[in-house]
Write a structure and sequence with these properties.
Shape: globular
Strand content: 5-15%
Order of helices and strands: HHEHEHEEEEEEEHHHEHEH
Strand order of the largest sheet: 1-9-8-7-4-2-3
Number of strands: 11
Helix content: 25-40%
Structural class: alpha/beta
Radius of gyration: 21 Å
Bound molecules: 4'-deoxy-4'-aminopyridoxal-5'-phosphate
Number of helices: 9
């Protein structure tokens, strides 16, 4: 979801951006008008997340998947050791990609054997002290698991994939070496990927990354080494403004708890719906759940859609159902879902 206020504003200025007589899609990314917009988005993100000055903020293309490669290519040598935490499907994708570029990818913790029902316990730093970094997936979008606190990594830089939970929780940025997120969950539309990286990590090893994924080169060029994703970047700036006007990240954190508490209570309070993730590992953002049979799930989806409750299918790789409670989802959206769930259970339970 994107906030409807943002979409309406974009609609209003679609044909004429700030009196230019052109759409923002038609103006040059080198023009003063666009540069100002791009700069404003970065300043806003810095304010919202309290990003210190010794961190660079990049707006790249290639999605979070591009970062699965960019991270080892920028921050490790081919013969380096890197450490990964395996908490599910997205963590595994990051691990598989890293294996293509680094000889030793050490999976220091995994909850795979138990079927990813909880986030794995990360061992003390001694177990991966030789790693150039430790990578973890802060929120498993498909599995519905979330780390409630980041792993302790001592002197080893911590890298977080926050594609599905950036800006939903207050962060202590200095704890992280690098944070990245594809924009399309909480930040804006698909097409732009945010990377927040501690300056001191750059240049420690010679980068092997292609120019467009090279952190130093992109940083020197203000993320405009080539033509950036101008329209997504513009919309991202608007989403950040909306977020600020709604009380910023602390308010988003409160809301995400309120929304997910309501939904988990509805699931746990019924003998009909189920979520098997250990309570201390449950995601506030993506809530997967099942019904007693696949036929009932199909029926649930059809009836829900008829009432305007959409996008509730689980990911195609796991099935079931999933409610995503991104920032733009209002509390009333969750109330409507919970009401529908009770009604459906009364009729089919
Ligand atoms: N990591 C996580 C946690 C995700 O949820 C996703 C996308 N859903 C990705 C990585 C991949 O993102 P992208 O499609 O931007 O490559």
């Amino acid at each position: 979801m994107l906030p409807s206020a943002v979409l309406e504003e974009a609609q209003e200025e679609l044909l004429d951006f700030r009196g230019s007589g052109m759409s923002v899609m038609e103006i040059s990314h080198r023009s003063a008008l666009y540069q100002e917009l791009a700069h404003d988005a970065e300043s806003r993100l810095r304010r919202l997340l309290l990003i210190p000055d010794d961190y660079r903020v990049l707006f790249l293309q290639g999605g979070a998947t591009g970062q699965f490669a960019a991270i080892p290519l920028n921050l490790a040598a081919a013969e380096s050791t890197v450490a990964y935490v395996d908490s599910g499907i997205w963590a595994m994708k990051a691990i598989d990609e890293a294996k293509r570029f680094v000889s030793t990818v050490h999976v220091v913790a995994s909850s795979r054997r138990e079927g990813y029902l909880s986030v794995p316990q990360v061992p003390a730093e001694g177990a991966f002290r030789d790693a150039r970094y430790l990578h973890y997936t802060a929120n498993e979008t498909i599995g519905g698991l979330e780390f409630q606190v980041p792993p302790e990594t001592g002197a080893v830089p911590l890298i977080a994939d926050m594609s599905s939970n950036l800006l939903t929780r207050v962060l202590d940025i200095p704890r992280y070496g690098l944070i990245y997120a594809g924009a399309q969950k909480n930040l804006g539309p698909a097409g732009v990927t945010v990377v927040i990286v501690r300056e001191a990590l750059l240049g420690e090893v010679p980068s092997r990354a292609p120019a467009i994924l090279d952190y130093v080169r992109q940083s020197l060029e203000g993320s405009m080494l080539n033509t950036p994703a101008t329209y997504p970047w513009y919309l991202l700036g608007k989403v950040l403004l909306w977020l600020e006007s709604r009380g910023g990240v602390p308010e988003m954190e409160r809301e995400s708890l309120r929304k997910s508490d309501l939904l988990y209570s509805a699931i746990d309070g019924s003998g009909f719906y189920a979520n098997s993730i250990r309570p201390d590992s449950r995601s506030r953002i993506n809530v997967p759940f099942t019904l007693p049979t696949p036929a009932l799930e199909r029926r649930f989806l059809d009836e829900a859609a008829a009432q305007g409750l959409r996008n509730l299918e689980g990911h195609r790789s796991v099935g079931g159902l999933r409610a995503s409670l991104y920032n733009a989802m209002p509390f009333e959206g969750v109330t409507a879902l919970v009401r529908f769930m009770a009604d459906f259970e009364a009729r089919h339970g």
